[in-house]
């Protein structure tokens, strides 16, 4: 057998074997199941991103009840507020859920303690290196899954005892790294021995299938869950996502070293004007960013607030229950994976 005039080198067979391994029969249906389904006790290998001011108990429980892994955002809470949200989530679901610890949060120390005390089964981290908290979390039996934007940070996470990593490409909303998901995921897969979950630019079944083909064993989705029925953000935020076009997101905050992707609006225009004005101090810029996530997500001010969303925002077409979102994504992924064989002659 020859592939495009080159001698067949066995890679195709490996790819097909991998495809077969992913698609497992379940009561007559083909279903996607990877090692993390069993390891984390979930039906579908999909995480909901722990989005600041968005991912509360309602959304996390909705996703967990639908068979994914719901994640509560630790970013916008102090220790007591987070504990209350965890208790609420436990009332809404008996399925596993996680907490995201945003390492730049002013409350990071108390939040880190609460997740250990509450023995949250899965903790994801963002915006930094969680090394300092790993010992305490591992001792509490927590599976730690850091979000990493580079190979170096993935290696570091593995060395610290991470259970898996989330390789997040810069297509995602919120705080982003430089590399795209397409470039980042296979490089991390080739480097670490722990499971890799892909994030950034994943809103439908084609993108989910592509992530699996890059070697990921699961995906994390943020933007599409913004419009989940269970998501309690202001309707104005959901409407902005539903109306978004392909080129409607922009990066702000590069000058301060933490670029954030959000939908273009009066806030991003004003911020960018100041960001590229050398007379404006870093402190003034930092002050401009205070409270803007809350203003949009909870206050509904989508003009003067910051409205994080990924580059896939334009693919998000309607408000739906989390269960419908997940089932639609997996049904489509199973279809495209099943049909992929047609290109292999
Ligand atoms: O964390 C996110 N997304 C976020 S956090 C957020 S709130 C915020 N507020 C102010 C400034 C910045 C953010 C909104 N969206 N995603 C996970 C993520 N983590 N993306 C990138 C990273 C990351 C970046 C650097 C992870 C580790 C890292 O390490 C740097 C280092 O050298 O420690």
What order do the helices and strands come in, and which of them pair?
Elements: E1 2-3, E2 6-7, H1 11-22, E3 23-26, E4 29-32, H2 35-40, E5 46-48, H3 57-65, E6 70-73, H4 79-92, E7 97-102, H5 108-117, E8 122-126, H6 131-139, E9 143-148, H7 151-159, E10 165-168, E11 174-175, H8 181-189, E12 196-199, H9 205-213, E13 218-221, H10 235-243, E14 249-252, E15 260-263, H11 266-275, H12 282-288, H13 292-297, H14 322-339
Parallel strand pairs: 5-13, 6-7, 7-8, 8-9, 9-10, 10-12, 12-13
Antiparallel strand pairs: 1-2, 3-4, 11-15, 14-15
The structure holds ligand TUI.
Task: Summarize the structure in short.
This protein has helices spanning 11-22, 35-40, 57-65, 79-92, 108-117, 131-139, 151-159, 181-189, 205-213, 235-243, 266-275, 282-288, 292-297, 322-339; strands spanning 2-3, 6-7, 23-26, 29-32, 46-48, 70-73, 97-102, 122-126, 143-148, 165-168, 174-175, 196-199, 218-221, 249-252, 260-263.
Descriptive report:
The longest helix has 18 residues, at 322-339. The model is unreliable at 1-15 (pLDDT under 50). 40% of the residues lie in helices and 17% in strands. It contains 14 helices and 15 strands. The chain is of the alpha/beta class and 345 residues long. Bound molecules: ligand TUI. Ligand TUI is lined by residues 52, 75, 102, 104, 126-129, 147-149, 153, 168, 174-177, 258, 260, 308.
